[in-house]
Amino acid sequence: MGQVTIYLDQEHEQRLKQAARAAGLPVSRYVARLVEDNTRNEWPENVRALPGQWADFPSLDELRVSGSDSAREEL
């Protein structure tokens, strides 16, 4: 396993430690998880399992047939 040294100012170091503590993780595991989550090449399994989970959601064919835009809110 590789080791990485990072340099943070005091404020960011404290914020990192607080975030790791809130997540219940050591700082090194918290940073490793951030890297893992932000450098992923594919969607996580829980996201890939979402299609088809809403029974009342229109199918792709139904969406394509409608042919008209939805009304938009005024700004």
Order of helices and strands: HHHH
What general outline do the C-alpha atoms trace?
Answer: elongated
The residue ranges in which pLDDT falls below 50 over 5 or more consecutive positions are none
Task: Report the span from N to C terminus.
Answer: 53 Å
Q: What is shown here, in short?
A:
Helix content is 49%, strand content 0%.
Which keywords apply here?
mainly alpha; elongated; 75 residues; 49% helix; 4 helices
In terms of topology, how is this protein built?
Layout: H1 10-23, H2 27-38, H3 45-48, H4 60-66
Helix pairs in contact: 1-2
Structure, described:
This protein has 75 residues and is an all-alpha fold. It has a domain of 51 residues. 49% of the residues lie in helices and 0% in strands. The chain has four helices and no strands. Helix 1 packs across helix 2. It is elongated and about 55 Å long.
